[in-house]
Amino acid sequence: MNGSIMQTPFKQSAEAGQSLVAFKGATVRVPLAGGSHTEIIASLNAVFAEPFVTQKSQEKTLSL
What we know:
The protein is mostly beta strands and 64 residues long. Helix content is 0%, strand content 41%.
């Protein structure tokens, strides 16, 4: 955020039993001097979900 005019820090926290699984949002293309451009974050949200718990599979050996 160095050099930006508007700086908006944010903080996301998961509720009990939830984990942060992804971010979703949108960017905006901003033209710069000299004909180039940059992308800035227009919106950013966190996506939470219950953590996936792997269960140990029960293997059985069959005797013939």
